Fold this protein.
Amino acid sequence: MSLIHEIDHGTPPSPAEETVALFVDGAPVSVPAGTSVMRAAALAGVQLPRLCSTESLEAFGSCRLCLVEIAGRPGTPASCTTPVAAGMAVTTQSARLAKLRRGVMELYISDHPLDCLTCSANGDCELQDMAGAVGLREVRYAPGASHLDAKLDESNPYFTYDPSKCIVCSRCVRACAEVQGTFALTIEGRGFASRVSAGMAEPFLASECVSCGACVQACPTATLMEKSVIEIGQPEHSVLTTCGYCGVGCTFEAEMRGNQVVRMTPARQGKANRGHSCVKGRFAWGYATHRDRVLRPLVREKLTDPWREVGWDEAIARVASEFRRIQASYGRGAIGGITSSRCTNEETYLVQKLVRAGFGNNNVDTCARVCHSPTGYGLKTTFGTSAGTQDFDSVDHSDVIVVIGANPTDGHPVFASRMKRRLRAGARLIVIDPRRIDLVRMPHVEAAHHLQLRPGTNVAVLTALAHVIVTEGLVNEAFVRERCDLDEFADWAAFAAEERNAPEAVERISGVPAEELRRAARLYATGGNGAIYYGLGVTEHSQGTTAVMAIANLAMATGNIGRPGVGVNPLRGQNNVQGACDMGSFPHEFSGYRHVSDDAARSVFETLWGVALEREPGLRIPNMIDEALAGSFKGLYIQGEDLVQSDPDTKHVVAGLEAMECVVVQDLFLNETANFAHVFLPGSSFLEKDGTFTNAERRINRVRRVMPPRAGLADWEVTVAIAEAMGVPMRYAHPSEIMDEVARTTPTFAGVSYAKLDALGSVQWPCNEKAPEGTPVMHRDGFVRGRGRFIVTEYVPTDERTGPRFPLLLTSGRVLSQYNVGAQTRRTANMTWHREDVLEIHPHDAEERGIREGDRVRLSSRVGATTLCARVTERVAPGVVYTTFHHPLTQTNVVTTQYSDWATNCPEYKVTAVQVAPSAGPSEWQLEYGELAESHGHVARRADAPE
Ligand code: SF4
Ligand code: SF4
Ligand code: SF4
Ligand code: FES
């Protein structure tokens, strides 16, 4: 076949920036062409007064406070909107300018409540600062028409809108448009009547606003103000740290009064978020001090006994003695541990060390098992590294963006805002998803193609895209020849070209129109820099790993690897899922993805830890449950996970846990898994931690303690205590020493230290001698494994089939306001937006079943049933239903099956054959589980129970 290639390979690097020399108040300054006079003045050390302009927004030129004089030009232009010119002589201070600025300010102040002393923004108000800066001493205007009686909007749970303080600078409107990309705000009316309006002149809560808070941060007055600041007062100090929610890894200033958080402000120096945030990171931190936090260790003999509060020493001694007893009775392999993607790198490293060195086996696994384990396997096989290829900045250089099996506006909102900005600037978008996610069509963004495939057919669709690329001569021959294994390429290309992989054949399997598929393939292959972003809609399938490899094939075939703007980018779910995998949480790998049978790697740890280590891989989570039911696995240490709610086939998980003799749960709250625990160890929230999280870009970010651990011990100290009690020495004075050990033992982390992270802000691994400041874009000059591997991706339909009893396909996901099993977000005002899991169902399917919007319905599969409310919507196609798993009262996973990815056992959450019918009350399992939870004694009230 032809490999002829005449394709745009993407944007060439920009030429060196041109600079312009000018004078500001007589001082020479050189700045890049296009810089504003205001910015040039700042670089020359002159701060001009301003109200409508900020560093993070495009200049607007409305407040007229930043006026300057420019030699040879008439009038007093606004410096924020005037670009520099060569030889320009700018005057920033003169009697005329001072008078004009005072006049402008006087007009603002004449229509402003002069309540500075009692205003919540007192001391942090730009209007107040600017009035001082321009020397305003009196207001000469008599009281007249004003906005001072304008009505306060307190509808949003996190911030207020007080129009009486608004100066109509439009910063909020522009922040919502430019930074967040939601376009919820407008300036309504003209002249004196103009005012900020949310949605169709609605309260904020009723509008399209997604509560990201960008407008609040941009507002120079107290018009938009955090309720926490109003309640607590202005912060006194701040600590730079990293969000504890999703894999974007936003950097925040935790602004504090004593040990109390006043607000979380996204930091501009954060390289993942560049000063932006979503509703979770900025506002949903109240769970850290929620009354449900368990602050004393708890123990009990039997699951039906009430919990007994004990001191740390007794609890730790109990864990150690129980684990040693079990090993003495049932063998060394009868216990294991589960690390958490919510904990720091240092904490997860210690848990796997405890298991390998202390338990003497490799029975350690992580919740990445149930989300991105196929990413690790797939990308390691094809490229040589178990991680995404790019940094987030890369998207600014993309020309074609493919989003498959991900819903970034809900799951990775800050990155989604970045992506939307690039799309508004002209990049084209291809969405491959069974659901019409928001990105398909939203203000100023519209997908060029939405391939609305049937759940479970990713591999067929991806291979059909490859078919078009191969058979229409769109392969980047030079890239393939230079960078990839040619024999494997030839095998793959021959396979992809087969007629059974043609879009026309795949249309019958996937439901995607062949012509749409062909057009999408051509766009990706020929549209310039092509970047693929994917999520759990790719991995959580019986062919999850195959789909990851199919994505890698597409990127290699089109040469979309190894430079900004391209790449293969898994969007990681939890804050530290990348880090948990990096730190050796899988039963077959040490930190840095080295197999436990690798003698050289094993000897590094054996020498350092002073013990012989097991060379056979240990048990994965599903195997632990199976072995527990078989009677050979009896004890489990679970740090920061809720298996009962998050893992598939809830009944099976519950039975496995009940079969164990010592289950130890370490968490913030008594979660669902704690119903089946014998020891509960209080965990610490991200605000109480010192350590690092690694985000979806491989970026290692510092997490800094902003308040002491509320239960007295940090999570890493608890693991150390268990290890010491089991006779395994672990001596660390600070988490930085744990990272030092990671650096000593792990080649890709060899150059990482807290000193470097503090100096650079963050680094992306690999960070070592070859890349001392980290690696933003991988595989630049060649693949890490050598030559890139094309893998034949045969489509194998899942064994989970629809039929007369279960005719619909259930797929699942998350919503913006909730996070994972909801343990944190359900304990915040984010409940305002999502109080319960709902089932999306297409109008045709609903009508056939006599179901109306809001009805309670029974959702049943071959393994279980639950009940929840129906939402009738065309976001899902006929034959497909969708829900979330944020609420334990629903227990969505009681219906998901044990089918899993062939390579990694990642569960097939995204494809379950189900039936939906009007509900006649709670399902059998809901009743049974309710009784179990009752008898297994939750001592704390449930967060989602009525007050
Ligand atoms: S909170 Fe965010 S989405 Fe809502 S209006 Fe402000 S900027 Fe827009
Ligand atoms: S609400 Fe704040 S940011 Fe928006 S126009 Fe009014 S003063 Fe400016
Ligand atoms: S996008 Fe993710 S990391 Fe950033 S604030 Fe939101 S939840 Fe936190
Ligand atoms: S800051 Fe320049 S016009 Fe407002």
Notes: Residues 175-176, 180, 182, 184-185, 209-215 surround iron/sulfur cluster (ligand 1) (CB under 6 Å).
